[in-house]
Amino acid sequence: MLRDKNLIPLSHQHQHALALCVRIDRASPVSDFDLNAWQMEVVQHFEPEIKMHFLAEERILFPIARHYPELVPLIEELSADHADLRAFFAWAKAGEMSSEELSEFAERMSDHIRKEERQLFESLQKLLNPTQLAALGAKLQDALKDAEQACILPNETTKLKPLK
Predict the structure, then answer these.
(1) Does residue 79 sit within a domain?
(2) 20 to 30 A Cα–Cα from 92, which one of 24, 42, 62, 134?
């Protein structure tokens, strides 16, 4: 299903996070020597964009979805994912993430994004009428207005390497 224009800002942010996850996956296992660079890249994505993204979902999107009983278990799961992912970001910020945890972070972030895109967004597009979707989009736009729109460029260590 085509993504409704009112959810596209969240989907664009999902694309940014998925690109990071792909690069982590391709670089794995990350050597201890390169681990700090990868942790800093994870933090670089969280601070300007993902932190606000999570808050917008938790304050705007999830409460709307909770009005539909069939979505409540999914919202509980996604909320738990946010808590778990915040812990990974905190470990990265503290420089305490292992190579295995970095790989686990990428896998869990990818799984989380796919659940939101394939289950939550698809369901909301079917359940909400155009007026409700437009109201949701306006609230999301306001909530995300301070998120940085800058393109985060990987450093030499974290840039995508060609497949071998």
Answers:
(1) yes
(2) 62
Determine the structural domain holding residue 17 and report its residue range.
8-27+35-144
The number of domains in the chain is 1
- pTM for the whole structure: 0.88
Residue 161, in any domain of the structure: no
The CA dihedral of 106, 90, 145, 142, to the nearest 10 degrees, is: 100
pLDDT in tens, the chain (164 residues): 799 999 999 999 999 999 999 999 999 999 989 999 999 999 998 888 899 999 999 999 999 999 999 999 999 999 999 999 999 999 999 999 999 999 999 999 999 999 999 999 999 999 999 999 999 999 999 998 876 554 455 556 655 566 65
Say if 154 falls within a structural domain. no
